[in-house]
């Protein structure tokens, strides 16, 4: 009987470990929104970097709510034909569904660029985003994302908008 008891434990352990190894990882879900908003603050310049350019917008789509973004870029001044390279930043999206607050997603802006037209009044924007956490329904969220859109200096305050994609 003793040899049988010694065999049961390793077999049970092997079964449990193989079950855990066979459990698939939870697949990330793709979320698409359209954003439309304004630039609140142009940021401040230190050396060759502009820090904290602040933006706010309404998001509609899979994650409806309000997004804020604070972006750092170089060279520090936009202008005709200039490409500003994003060197960092952060963002947060407060999600409301049916008028009820569901939680907040937050993350970093790891790269991207704003490329200005020949008159320096309209830029195409591409941003690389990371999802690094959240609250409420989104507690523990991690993933990646992107923003592709525009920034217009034809109005005051400047307007921005485009497509936000998050995968978490």
Number of strands: 9
CATH fold node name: AOC barrel-like
Label the overall shape: globular
At CATH's second level, what is the architecture?
Beta Barrel
The structural class is mainly beta
Q: What is the N-to-C order of secondary-structure elements (H for helix, E for strand)?
A: HEEEEEEEEE
Mean of all residue-level pLDDT scores: 90
Largest sheet: 8 strands, antiparallel, barrel
Number of folding domains? Answer: 1
Helix content: 10-25%
Number of helices: 1
Cα-atom Rg, whole angstroms?
23 Å
**Range of strand content:** over 45%
How are the strands of the largest sheet arranged? 1-3-4-5-6-7-8-9
Through-space gap between termini: 51 Å
Summarize the structure.
By secondary structure, the protein is mainly β. Helix content is 12%, strand content 61%. The chain has a single domain (26-167), classed as AOC barrel-like (Beta Barrel), CATH 2.40.480.
Features:
1 helix, AOC barrel-like, 9 strands, 168 residues, globular, mainly beta, eight-stranded antiparallel beta barrel
Task: Describe the protein's topology.
Blueprint: H1 2-22, E1 30-41, E2 44-46, E3 49-61, E4 65-74, E5 83-97, E6 100-116, E7 122-134, E8 143-152, E9 159-167
Characterise the protein shown here:
It is a single chain. The protein has 168 residues and is mainly beta. The chain has a single domain, classed as AOC barrel-like (Beta Barrel), CATH 2.40.480. It has 1 helix and 9 strands. The chain has one helix at residues 2-22, and strands at residues 30-41, 44-46, 49-61, 65-74, 83-97, 100-116, 122-134, 143-152, 159-167. An 8-stranded antiparallel barrel has the order 1-3-4-5-6-7-8-9. A hairpin with an 8-residue loop joins strand 7 (122-134) and strand 8 (143-152). It is globular.
């Amino acid at each position: 009987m003793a040899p049988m008891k010694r065999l049961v434990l390793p077999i049970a352990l092997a079964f449990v470990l193989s079950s855990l190894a066979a459990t698939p990882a939870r697949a990330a879900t793709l979320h698409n929104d359209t954003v439309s908003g304004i630039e609140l603050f142009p940021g401040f310049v230190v050396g060759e970097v502009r820090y904290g350019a602040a933006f706010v917008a309404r998001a509609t789509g899979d994650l409806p709510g309000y997004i804020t973004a604070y972006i750092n870029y170089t060279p520090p001044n936009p202008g005709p034909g200039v490409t500003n390279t994003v060197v960092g930043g952060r963002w947060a999206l407060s999600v409301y569904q049916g008028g009820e607050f569901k939680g907040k997603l937050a993350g970093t802006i790891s790269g991207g660029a704003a490329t200005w037209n020949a008159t320096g009044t309209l830029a195409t924007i591409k941003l690389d985003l990371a999802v690094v956490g959240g609250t409420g329904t989104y507690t523990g969220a991690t993933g990646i994302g992107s923003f592709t859109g525009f920034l217009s200096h034809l109005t005051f305050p400047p307007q921005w908008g485009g497509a936000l994609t998050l995968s978490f």
